[in-house]
Design goal:
- It is a single chain.
- The protein has an 8-stranded mixed beta sheet, sandwiched between helices.
- It has one domain: 3-Layer(aba) Sandwich (Aminopeptidase).
- The chain contains 7 helices and 8 strands.
- The protein is globular.
- The structure holds coenzyme A.
- The site of coenzyme A (COA) has 17 residues, from strand 5, helix 5 and helix 6.
- Coenzyme A binds next to strand 5, helix 5 and helix 6.
């Protein structure tokens, strides 16, 4: 599914489902640019992290934004046991070696979220730095909500860290409500944040085929 959704600044931004074949490296760069601070202790150095992320992407677990054919944003989601960023413990050990790899596997496990039944978990949203604040992130959120509706999910879940209040403001504006905050002060020194807030948004039920909604 592909939608021409808006015209902002330069050319039209197109939102579509999936990461286009050949754009895995660019997707990994965007992801790392946005989340490198958080994932650094697990996947550093960047010249190893970006190829690792690119090689283990599940391209069908994202929606993406394209500007003149170039990937400028993505939003991953986890559903049916798969998320945008893949890579088993064995793959981490293979890429980073057994000695340092084990610590990395344990750190990555801290970020793992298991969706409840009927839930789609949003799993990392990132927009090119030069295009932020122009509505692309909002479009990615709405397309993810459309994916959730098509999959028959009742709820979208995401987790936002305490050092990212602007992202939280965006989520609140897009209809997410905070349901709980887990305080992890012991991780502040290691990962740079000391609390994670879980937010939910209900998914509107899809009208049956052939029926239009008012
Ligand atoms: C968060 C992010 C995806 C939003 O994308 P976007 O295209 O800038 O979003 P929109 O233009 O639809 O909405 C803008 C709102 O996003 C929020 N926002 C968060 N970080 C922002 C940033 N660095 N620049 C601009 N807006 C940001 C603000 O609430 C902003 O509203 P404001 O301009 O009134 O302050 C993008 O800023 C980004 O990639 N940030 C780095 C990665 C990140 O923090 N991801 C979220 C992890 S939970």
């Amino acid at each position: 599914m592909e939608r021409d959704v808006t015209q902002r600044g330069g050319g039209p931004v197109t939102v579509r489902r999936g990461i286009p074949a050949g754009a895995e490296r660019r997707a990994a760069e965007l992801y790392w640019d946005a989340f490198g601070r958080k994932l650094g202790p697990a996947l550093d150095p960047p010249d190893k992290a970006v190829p690792f992320i690119a090689a283990h992407l599940n391209a069908d677990r994202a929606v993406c934004a394209l500007l003149d054919g170039r990937l400028v944003g993505l939003a991953g989601h986890q559903y049916g046991g798969r998320s945008l960023t893949g890579g088993s413990a064995r793959a981490v050990l293979r890429a980073y070696g057994h000695l340092g790899g084990l610590r990395r596997v344990l750190l990555l496990a801290l970020f793992h979220r298991r969706p409840a039944p009927g839930q789609l978990v949003m799993d990392g949203i990132a927009v090119d730095r030069d295009l932020r604040g122009r509505g692309v992130g909002s479009l990615l959120i709405e397309e993810t909500a459309a994916v959730a509706a098509d999959l028959g999910c009742r709820q979208i879940r995401l987790d936002v860290i305490d050092t990212n209040p602007r992202a939280r403001t965006l989520y609140e504006r897009r209809g997410f409500t905070a349901v709980r905050t887990q305080h992890t002060p012991c991780l502040r020194g290691l990962l740079g944040f000391g609390a994670v807030t879980t937010m939910h948004r209900s998914v509107a039920e899809k009208a049956p085929e052939g029926l239009s909604t008012p």
